[in-house]
Structure formats: C-alpha cells, structure tokens
Prior knowledge:
The protein is an all-alpha fold. 68% of the residues lie in helices and 0% in strands. The longest helix has 25 residues, at 67-91. The model has no long low-confidence stretch (mean pLDDT 89).
Amino acid sequence: TFIEKIADYLGVRASDFRSIKAMFYKDANAAYMILEVKEKATDAEVKKAYRKMAVKYHPDKLTHLGKEFQKSAKEKFQKVNEAYETIKKERGFS
C-alpha cells in the first residue's frame, strides 16, 4: 500500500510498521501483530516478545525526548499491554 511505501522510505522496519498498524486497525491477529509474534508462537516466545515491546515503548525510557514522544509511547505501551492481556486470556496462561 501507499502508506507502507512511505514507511519504507522513512526507514521504518516492516515489523514495526505492522505492529503499529495493528494498534489502530483491529483484526483477529492484531494482538499477535502488536507483539510481533506469530499465532503459533509458544507462551515463552509471547512473554519474551511482550517484554521486548514493553521496554521499547515504556514512557519512562523516553523522558529525554519530550512530552509529545512520551504521550505517543504511553499510548503504544498501553496497546502492548492490552495485546498481551488478550493473548494471556485466550491461551489461559499468566
């Protein structure tokens, strides 16, 4: 799509683009896309992906970038948490 081409020109990795897109366009696989894992991923792989994304978007890690970046990171961090909770409920693990 045109948006994917723009993201590519801006140097946004395809996996990052899909993850961010899944935060705004819901479908059956959105939770997995947000965490950048496949539905077939093991519970351990899901947990590892969650930790990676939580670190990546944690607002406290981005305080030096200003309030606008912090706000965006907070929203993304919330989506990451929601995705993880969705998968945990679906799979029945904690």
